[in-house]
């Protein structure tokens, strides 16, 4: 088993909240990992449009509920120094969406998502955002170093069901944007990484979810020898 791996912040959202067996396989036996389905092209386009819309302004000028900072870096690769928990060493490495310089000289980490600004999104993406904050504060020697990170959160774009056609074929899909704060605590993040490590260092993948239809299907196919 690999005892020194690179963990991607984005896998700490969907992949982690899903099946731990798949999570284990994707890091310890990636050749057997389930295929990664490509994100529909529309989402990166919306993300890019959001980044452009927020590029040169202090976010709080739009609304006081948004962070008092402006973007200084976007889509940049970062990597942490090695982290060791319970004898298991790993690094964290990935691309953040945007980093803000705050009016008070501290820094913020922002991710753009097309989603509802509800508790579910908050829970889903919190660890991904915390991972970026951790890496920026504990960077590898060649990686971007920014400290302190005072704010982390999401800018969510929530499309409405209203499509306006002004001059066909041009049209506008209306929507609303929200700021969702996700407080960062290094202590809590490392505690969470302890849970991740506890799964990754298992000698074998965790048992499958007995209710997962895909696993039942795979089992059946093996049985029938199709
Ligand atoms: S239980 Fe489902 S999600 Fe988990 S490993 Fe099996 S197929 Fe994948």
Verbal overview:
This protein is α/β, with parallel strands linked by helices and about 230 residues long. The protein has one domain: Alpha-Beta Complex (Lambda Exonuclease, Chain A). About 30% of the residues lie in helices and about 30% in strands. Strands 1, 2, 3, 4, 5, 6 and 7 form a seven-stranded mixed β-sheet that branches. A hairpin with a 4-residue loop joins strand 4 and strand 5. It is globular, with a radius of gyration of 20 Å. The mean pLDDT is about 90. Bound molecules: iron/sulfur cluster.
What is the rounded Rg? 20 Å
| Unreliable sequence segments | none
Structural class: alpha/beta
Mean pLDDT: 91
**Terminal Cα span:** 30 Å
Share in β-strands? 25-35%
CATH structural class: Alpha Beta
Largest sheet: 7 strands, mixed
Report the order of strands and helices: EHHHEEEEHEEHH
- Helix tally equals 6
Quaternary state reads: single chain
Q: What is bound: which ligands?
A: iron/sulfur cluster
CATH architecture: Alpha-Beta Complex
Number of β-strand runs: 7
CATH fold name: Lambda Exonuclease, Chain A
- Overall geometry comes to globular
Number of domains: 1
- Approximately how much helix is present in the residues? 25-40%
